[in-house]
Amino acid sequence: MLLNEFARRAVARDWVVVDHELTATGDLFATTTRLVRDAVLQVAPPGAWRAAGQRVGALLRSIEVSYELAGLSVGVARSEEADARASMDMARDLTELLVSLGEAARDHGRGVALLFDELQFASTAPLGALVTALHKVAQRELPVTLVAAGLPQTRGVLAEAASYAERMFAPVEVGPLSDADAKRALAEPAEREGVQYDEGALLRAVAFTEGYPYFLQVFGDHVWRYAAGTPVAAEDAERIAPLVRDSLDRGFFVFRTDRLPVAQRRYLRAMAELRGSEVSSGDIATQLGMRSSAQAGQTRDALIRKGLIYSPRLGRAAFTVPQFDDYLRRHFELERHEPRARRPSDAARDR
C-alpha cells in the first residue's frame, strides 16, 4: 500500500513510475535494465528523444549483447575473479544507464521513480551496482529516485551490498499499526458503507490481529460476510475470530511451510517452542538436540533467504510475520535432530 501511495504521488507530479516485485530467483540487474527501458519509453517516444534518450537506447542494446556474450544471462559458472569483474561491469553499466536516464528525464521536464518490493531478495552484487549508480545520480542531482520495501533483513542486505548504502537512504521501519490506527482501519471503511463497530468488537479484532495490516483486512472481510448486522458487536467478533484463524492457516501460513525441507521445518518449529519475540540461535539448537548453533547454520541462512525469519541482532532470530509461531505449534510436532550413528569407518577416519 505504501509503494502504491508513492506511485500515486509521483504520477501526480508527472513523474514516470516503473515498478517490480523481486523474487528469490529473480535477477536484479536484468530487472533494472528492463525498468530503465520502460521508463525511457514513457519519458518520451523514441522519435522525440534527444541525445540522452538516444544514449539510453544505445546503452541498453550494448548491455544486452555484451552480457549474453559473457554468458551471464544463462548462468554459466565463473571464477571469483570473473565474478568480481562482472560486479564492476554491472556497476559501470548501471551507472551509465541511470545517469543517461536522469539526463533524458531532465531534458523533458520529467522525473523517474523506480519502485521495488521484496528488496530482501536482491543479490549482493547487482544491488551494490544499483546503489553505486544511484549515488552517482544523486551527486549529479538528476531526477531519478528509488523507493523500496522489504522484510526486516533488508537493512542488512543493503549494508552488505554497499558500505555507504544506509547513508543514501532513509530507512523507516513499518511495524504493526497502533491500536488507534488499527481501529480506524476497520471502522472507517465500514462507516462509509453504513456499518458501525462497537468498542468491544474493535478491541477483540485488534487483539486478534495484533495490528498486522493483512490480518486486519482478513478480519474485516469476514466481519462483512458473517456479522449479524450493525453495529458489529463483541459477540460477532468473538464468533468470527476462529473463521479468520482458519482462513489465515489455509491461505497465508500454509504456503510458508508446505514445501519446506524437513530440516527447515524442524528449525522453525523449535523456534516456535521458545515463545519469544526473538530467540537465541543457541537455544534453538538446544531445542533441536544439537551441540551448537553452527550445526544448524545453513538451515538458518536458508530460512532467512526465503524471508521466513530474520536476524534482529547477532545470534538472534525472529519470525517475519506475527502468529507464525502459534501456527507451527498447532500444526507440527517438535522434532529433535537425530545424530547419525557412528560406523566403524568413522573410527578409522578419527585415527
Automatic annotation (TrEMBL):
SUPFAM superfamilies: P-loop containing nucleoside triphosphate hydrolases
Name assigned to this protein: Unannotated protein
Protein species of origin: freshwater metagenome
